[in-house]
Specification:
By secondary structure, the protein is of the alpha+beta class. It has a single domain (4-73), classed as BolA-like (GMP Synthetase, Chain A, domain 3, 2-Layer Sandwich). It is 27% helix and 26% strand. The protein has helices spanning 4-14, 46-55; strands at residues 19-24, 31-37, 67-73. Strand 1 and strand 2 form a beta hairpin.
Length: 78
Amino acid sequence: MPSADQLKERIEAALPGAVVRVEDLTGGGDHFRAEVVSGRFDGLSRIEQHQLVYGVFGDEVGGAIHALSIKTSTPGES
């Protein structure tokens, strides 16, 4: 099972300069909440922003990562 820190590191690697916070909601390593602030989200719809983050994990979401709740924003929105 991945840890919140591992998810955070992977998002940061995919979105350099992003401010990322990941919380393990159950302590079991399969339900997470991620808050991501990135300039890369400028001009993207909320759905496109979330797709960028979900894309970091591919098939793991719904597998090893049972649930991932995402809140995204640009630096100007945070």
